[in-house]
Amino acid sequence: MKNKKSIMAFAALQILIFHLWINLSSSEIENFIKQISYIGVDIFFFLSGYSLYRSDTGNYFQFIGNRFRNVYCKFILFVLIAAWLNKWDMVYVLKVIFGIDLIQNGGKAFLWFLPAIMLFYLIVPLYKKFDEKNRMIAVFTLGIVWIIIALLFTYGVKTVPIAIWWNRIPIFFIGYYLAGFHTNRRITGHRAAYLSGFALIVAADIILAYRYAYKMKLNQPIEDMFYILVIPLAIGIAYLVSLIKENKLIRAIGSSSLELYAMQMVFGYTWANQLLSKTKSILVTDIATVIILIAAAVCVHYLYQAIFCCIRRRILVTKQ
Q1: Is the predicted pLDDT of residue 300 greater than 90, yes or no?
Q2: Maximum alpha-carbon separation in the chain
Q3: What's the pTM?
Q4: Could you tell me which residues come within 8 angstroms of residue 26 by beta carbon, excluding any fewer than 6 positions away?
């Protein structure tokens, strides 16, 4: 898939719109776009699965170490910042860091997406070995386990709100297997056919999303079924956005997507409210919030990279 940073930047902006965009009017279209923008999360799961297929996971602990450094260390940093700002007690901080908050509160957990994606990184390399030995059995087992647990938490143990991330497993593995399909087949179809095909998929699923993920939240036959319903929409948008060529700005935003997600949840609501109280303009507040958060996220991302590189150099010098 080309221009991955373009997709990451677009998905990050979608999540930002979902959380912080203040509607300019009572327009049904604007509200639908805002409410459906949570598919930015689905796009990230899709990309993660796609990338994981192509990643070298042979050395499990090295792979997990890299993902821990690039994802979970940042997550812990933002947990500590939020804990300091909100005066969380140590018990809750540990629950957040060790994923207990995710299991107990699902999508209401602090930065739930990051521990959820780390769970995939921990488990999928092991699944990958199983898949490489016998794909049919692996896919069948995965499907059966997913359906059984989804039904269990729909009709059985309803007190554990895992649907928001459990229902992202299908799109993650669709990305995983599409990466293998593209690698093996090397499909390079005609640009017009590519555009028209995915445009039709997006258009068709927008209609379904409007009816069953916006006007009403489809919850049958499994809880939060609407997340499954919008999978074609998320994938179609990802492929269409992949046609946007990367530039320096897009690469910077795409590379800082984790920081942008975290910072909007830690600081975004406070900053947006302060801007609105000062500017008295919804439009100015929306634009300024997006610009300020992007600038702050990019600065934090490259500062983190610089600090890590400095520490690594010092370790290497010490070893020598």
Answers
A1: yes
A2: 64
A3: 0.91
A4: none
The separation between the first and the last C-alpha atoms of the chain, rounded to the nearest angstrom, is 40
Using one digit for the tens of pLDDT, what is the confidence trace for 252-262? 999 999 999 99
The pLDDT of residue 122 is 92
- Radius of gyration, alpha carbons of the chain: 20
C-beta separation of 242 from 8 below 8 A: no
Residue 12: closest CA among 261, 235, 252, 231? 261
Distances (CA, A) of 125 to 51, 91, 257: 12, 31, 23
Task: Give which of 238, 225, 265, 226 is closest to 174, Cα–Cα.
Answer: 238
Amino acid at 219: N
Exposure letters 51-82 (e unless 16+ CB within 10 A, then b): ebbebebeeeeebbeebbeebbebbeebbeeb
**Which residue type occupies 238?**
A
Flag the least confident range among 6-10, 90-94, 313-317. 313-317
Q: Left if phi > 0, otherwise alpha if psi is -120 to 50, otherwise beta: which for 5? A: alpha
Cα 47 to its chain centre, rounded Å, is 8
Strand, helix or coil for residue 144: helix
For residue 219, pLDDT over 90 is answered with no
Structure tokens at 135: 């794909």
Quick one: tokens of 222? 């499994």
Measured distance CA(266)–CA(247) in Å, rounded: 28
Q: Which residues contact 63 (CB under 8 A, 6 or more apart)?
A: 55, 56, 57, 121, 125
Name the percent of the chain in helix, strand, coil, to the closest 5. 80, 0, 20
Rounded to whole angstroms, how far apart are CA atoms 109 and 130? 31
Tell me the residue type at 170: P
> Of 52, 77, 61, which Cα lies nearest the Cα of 308?
77
Collapse the DSSP code of 280 into the 3-class scheme (helix H, G, I; strand E, B; otherwise coil) and give the result: coil
